[in-house]
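Please predict the structure of the following assembly.
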Amino acid sequence: MAQRAKILIVDDDPDYVEITKSILESKDYDVETAHSKAEAEQKIAASKPDLIILDIIMDRMNDGFKLCYQLKHDPALRSIPVFAISSVNQVTGFTFSPETDGEYFEADDFAEKPIKADELLRRVENLLRKN
Amino acid sequence: MRSTPRILVVDDEEIIRLGCQRILSDEHYEVLTAADGRAGLALAQEKSPDLVLVDLLMPEMGGMELLEAIHHHDKKIVTIVITGYATIESAVEAVKKGAFDYLPKPFGPEELRAAILRGLERRRLLLETDRLRRERERNLLELAAERSRTASIIQSMGEGLLVVNQRRQLVLLNPVAQKMLRLHDAQALGKPIEGLLQNKELEEFIIGAIAHHGNHPVLARKELPSAHEPNGVLAATLSPILSDRSEVLGVVVVLRDISEQKRIERSKSDFVRMVAHELKAPIGAIEGYLNLILDGMVKDDPARQMQIIERCRDRAAALLGLIRDLLDLSAIEAGKVAQEMAPVEVDKILKEVVELMGSEASTKGISLKLSTASRLPKVVGDREDLMRVFTNLVSNAIKYNRPGGEVTVSASSQDSYLVVEVKDTGFGIPAEEQGRIFDEFYRVKNEHTRKICGTGLGLAIAKRIVESHRGYIEVESEVDRGSTFAVHLPAYKTT
């Protein structure tokens, strides 16, 4: 039997975490959650996930960017696909994206909140398949 | 000159006076006569004739002396010498004394009429010349005053003003423009603007307008970044100066510093974006939860469904709270605050607040104490508004506290202020965030606050209310030790 893919949701909004977790669990993914950058770092170090769903604005405006940068500049962790899902563009008025922000924001995929359940599942599946 | 010229005949010979009078009256001149120099001078001074016939040899005052006196009185009175003792010397002397003509006696009516006509023509020219001179002087004075007025207006304008000629040289620069562009007129005037204004966009804008031929704009406006102020914005309005043949002779540029206006626009736009985001978050959560149920993702778990519905209710309640706060904030911004001002006893308000919040505190196992000094001064305030401020502070002190923690509300008189302190033993606020906690939507985010609901507007509203009561609010806080919010309100002085 194939091993279930482990997904880590990193977001400080408990409701968003709860909803995303329920959607992913409905497709039998093994879901872990972290509510801050520090908690995510601990959980990634303890057991490497197959995919990270990452919010950008958490305790600090750029926590998600920082964590993404750390992951993508760590040879041991850079292979983990990062799916950034955030309201950062709506809140700041900027237009961040992996295409325009290069090395600073090397997420493998990026979506604006809110994301529909089927769209979330489709893109998660794509990232896992690529990996 | 008068429509009926006035002629004065000064001669001691009655026959000459009468003869001249008859001839000249027939010509419709007004004729005055005098029998000697003194009487003639008095009449000349009083009546200002256009022309005077002066005999040379007269008692009392001779003709030469009279000539001199008349010209001293008014150079524009034309004088003609009439004499029976004509000599070259006297003629030369008379001319030197200002006589226009010299008519030897005896003379006939025709000679007299011709001399008078020439003299009056001379008089007309003298008056016309004088009128033109005075007009020119008046115009020069007006021009000088106009220039001075225009210069004063330009110098004291609130906007920056530049004038650039067709050769792209700066020809005028007022003090505001000097300040905006960091230029000194002494060094800048007459110089080409390329590189001089240190604002490439502005230089190109002006040069483009000067170079433009044909359908040049009547007015062009552009917003440009200021080269000297970070985030500074200048609005340049450019009007071409056109010749009669519609050629561009140069441009007038009016510069306005709109940095503050732009800053306010940015703030408003940031605020609207934040409001949209804050409203979207709970609705997004509610929609997400409802979709979990509708998509059948929790269909086999009734307890979980109930949890989801309860969470939707909580988020909806929080959303209503946020909308209420936004409406309050809007009302405060519109000046609808502190409207029912009256002397109020703050200790009574605090007692009410503590009673109101008692159950919330005990639910969390927090002890809530009130300690007010005796004989506190009243403050002039809106009771409802002040109630709201203290309720918000006490509610925060409970929410951001630990189970078993303490909240102490105290009031005392300090100098001319009544000071209310709300002290808690909660999580505290990091030093670097203390300056921002009164900003709209700013919430300290950490592991302690993550699950605490709040709109992020309570303290912003409290601060505005306190300030509308001419007071101020401040915070002292230490992480893990707790926070103290102090509200200072001017004490009501009874006279």
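The helical segments of chain A are 14-26, 37-46, 63-72, 88-92, 117-130. Chain A touches chain B through 25 residues (CB under 8 Å).
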